[in-house]
Design brief:
Layout (H helix, E strand, L loop, with lengths): L1 H24 L6 E12 L5 E11 L8 E12 L1 E2 L2 E2 L5 E5 L1 E9 L2 E3 L1 E5 L4 E7 L8 E11 L7 E8 L7 E9 L3 E5 L3 E3 L2 E9 L5 E8 L10 H27 L1
Parallel strand pairs: 1-13
Antiparallel strand pairs: 1-2, 2-11, 3-6, 3-10, 4-5, 7-8, 7-11, 9-10, 12-17, 13-16, 14-17, 15-16
């Protein structure tokens, strides 16, 4: 009898432990989610850009909600440079975007919005005060202009995290960047002409996907690494060869 009681206790404990493990592996439930998050960036020759965001938020619970302020967060990554060339050994820092001319829409109707530039990022708040029924969706569109989106001289670089949200995960994120010059490097992108496109899924809150781009007027091919490394490597080799020839000629005259 005692063995049966012990065996029963072990079985109950094992079942409870298994249920607890399964529960711990379940993803957290979010009240709201970005079902879609599409970003279209068009960069100009003066390093400014016009950006459009087309997002769909979904009420993920069985009760009506009022979204209130839907917050979009933007920033870029900057690295110190040596003679206009990024120093790969230096620390990266996040910088706010210089955002202007903000317009926001919900279901194609313009709504109030406000922007605020903080020390490391810029935020835009969009007013969405209409109740959202259970499992229903609302489309939010946002457009604005940005100054100094890229940096560099012979080779321009864009290094920008996209999709950061404090509270809402993103189920599908699509990013399209169109550039004024030839793309020489685009990490993980599908490149067609001067346009690079990416798609990411299931981005949790407080995370962002980092998008890396390089473009240039110099006719370099599209490579799997940054072209300025190859360009300056070739320049250094040519200079070393010229120096070697010069030294040999100088010694030959003696």
């Amino acid at each position: 009898m005692k063995k049966i009681i012990i065996l029963t206790g072990v079985i109950i404990f094992s079942i409870a432990f298994a249920i607890n493990c399964v529960s711990a592996q379940e993803p957290p439930a979010y009240v709201e989610v970005f079902e879609e998050y599409a970003v279209d960036i068009v960069v100009s020759d003066d390093d400014s850009a016009h950006i459009k965001i087309d997002a769909v938020i979904r009420n993920n619970i069985d009760k009506p909600i009022v979204p209130g302020y839907v917050v979009f967060t933007f920033y870029r990554v900057e690295q110190s440079k040596i003679l206009g060339i990024s120093n790969p050994f230096s620390d990266k820092k996040t910088m706010p975007l210089d955002i202007q001319n903000v317009k926001a829409y919900t279901n194609n109707e313009e709504v109030s919005s406000s922007s605020e530039k903080l020390s490391e990022r810029t935020i835009i708040r969009v007013d969405v005060w209409e109740p959202l029924p259970p499992k229903e969706k609302k489309r939010i569109s946002l457009e604005y202009d940005v100054e100094n989106i890229s940096e560099g001289m012979l080779f321009k670089e864009i290094e920008m995290p996209i999709g950061y949200s404090e509270l809402m995960p993103i189920e599908v994120q699509k990013v399209k960047i169109t550039l004024p010059q030839k793309i020489t490097y685009a990490y993980g992108a599908k490149v067609s002409g001067r346009t690079a496109e990416w798609e990411a899924r299931n981005i949790p809150p407080k995370k962002a996907i980092l998008y890396l781009l390089e473009y240039s007027k110099i006719p370099m091919p599209l490579l799997s690494f940054r072209s300025y490394w190859l360009f300056w490597g070739i320049i250094i080799i040519i200079l070393l060869i010229l120096l070697f020839v010069f030294i040999r000629k100088k010694r030959a005259k003696k």
